[in-house]
């Protein structure tokens, strides 16, 4: 049975990409953007973990956490916050939060923190598959290796994370800004040029399979096509 995550996020584009990325990793994700609807959902789905943005319409993450703790003392709560004031962080923990992650964040950091709070609550998900099949390649995510029947290529950390993100959103369009926010934490000019370099490197790594393409959608982002 998959792990249920109640994910509350009012930035719709970010919410969509995070939801899809978590689903690709085997989680069941229930996404909501309006704080007023959260408690009804919470009671319906009985999630294994709650990921709460703090700044929400109608009811903020702090209020929601307090209401969750009034009826459930065990479910892990992870706050997403752009707030950096110590008082805000203390308030989150006082209300029963288990962890927090500052925005913008990378998917890898979010996954690690979710797995950490699940492990502490004895609800750790099953280990991930040994590798992902991508066309003619086998992508070993833990080892950061891309292999075919002839050779293995050791990827850099950023190459590996970018390929993982593209694969998780395969056949859909992933916004360039979302990639920059999730992998670099900021969409600065310098990071944008770095992304161009890593896209070029991945295209070179994948060129032996003509059915694999990383298409540039001008002014939007990229689409990973597996043939």
Notes on the structure:
Helix 6 crosses helix 8. The chain is built from eight helices and twelve strands. It has a five-stranded parallel sheet, sandwiched between helices. The model has no long low-confidence stretch (mean pLDDT 87). Helices cover 41% and strands 22% of the residues. A hairpin with a 3-residue loop joins strand 11 and strand 12 (221-225). The chain has 227 residues and is an alpha/beta fold.
**Major sheet characteristics:** 5 strands, parallel
Radius of gyration, whole Å? 19 Å
Q: What is the H-and-E element order?
A: EHEHEHEHEHEEEEHEHHEE
In what range is the share of β-strand residues? Answer: 15-25%
Uncertain residue ranges: none
Q: Indicate the mean pLDDT.
A: 87
Helix fraction by DSSP (H/I, runs of at least 4) = 40-55%
Biggest sheet, spatial arrangement of strands:
2-1-3-4-5
**What's the helix count?**
8
Q: What structural class results from the helix and strand content?
A: alpha/beta
Instruction: For the record, give the distance between the C-alpha atoms at the N and C termini, rounded to a whole number.
Output: 31 Å
What global shape is seen? elongated
Q: What keyword list fits this structure?
A:
four-stranded antiparallel sheet; five-stranded parallel sheet; alpha/beta; 41% helix; 227 residues; elongated
